[in-house]
Q: What sequence folds into this?
């Protein structure tokens, strides 16, 4: 890594995050060699497509409200799979 202001900020934030992680019971080791800095990703705003974020809880609510005895779901998202299993017996076709 070069020593641009952005890279220096990344290094400082990594150190701070590492220190905070050590104060808790970490579930994984945070090492410098495991980093993958995406230095251009820290922006004031970030666009996201609401369709890909909000469809999972919408679908989970719709299924839960219909109270099916069995729901067979062809899941493309592990998030929707975990939401589904909280509500009922589920058969998954992946």
A:
């Amino acid at each position: 890594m070069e020593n641009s202001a952005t890279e220096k900020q990344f290094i400082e934030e990594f150190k701070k995050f590492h220190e905070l992680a050590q104060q808790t019971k970490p579930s994984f080791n945070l090492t410098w060699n495991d980093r993958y800095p995406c230095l251009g990703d820290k922006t004031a705003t970030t666009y996201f497509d609401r369709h890909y974020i909000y469809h999972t809880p919408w679908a989970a609510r719709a299924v839960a409200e219909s109270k099916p005895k069995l729901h067979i779901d062809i899941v493309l998202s592990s998030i929707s799979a975990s939401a589904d299993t909280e509500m009922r017996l589920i058969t998954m076709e992946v």
